[in-house]
Design brief:
By secondary structure, the protein is mainly α. It is built from 4 helices and no strands. Helix 1 packs across helix 2 and helix 2 crosses helix 3. It is globular.
Length: about 90
């Protein structure tokens, strides 16, 4: 059941990361956004714990903010690597 939770959280975090990522990332496919979100959730937990995060009672907002930020970076990297960043495409045609 934990894998299903990670996938659901990854989709939500990936979409939030896509939302706050700079530039136009609308051309990134949903499956790639999901992968970026799952990566953001997993890497966010690792980074959070590496800096001394030990959780808190209730919702741990710091962990989720770190996850969203990492997912946003992963979305930017994925759109750049796959060539789906329309901003880069516009610059190349000039």
């Amino acid at each position: 059941m934990e894998i299903v939770g990670i996938i659901i959280a990854g989709l939500i975090i990936g979409l939030l990361g896509k939302l706050i990522a700079p530039g136009d990332k609308d051309n990134t496919p949903i499956w790639l956004t999901l992968l970026c979100g799952v990566g953001g959730v997993l890497l966010g937990l690792v980074v959070y714990r590496a800096f001394g995060g030990d959780g808190s009672a209730g919702i741990d907002w710091t962990r989720w903010i770190v996850s969203i930020a990492i997912a946003a970076v992963l979305v930017v990297i994925a759109s750049t690597v796959t060539g789906r960043n329309s901003g880069a495409r516009r610059s190349a045609h000039r």
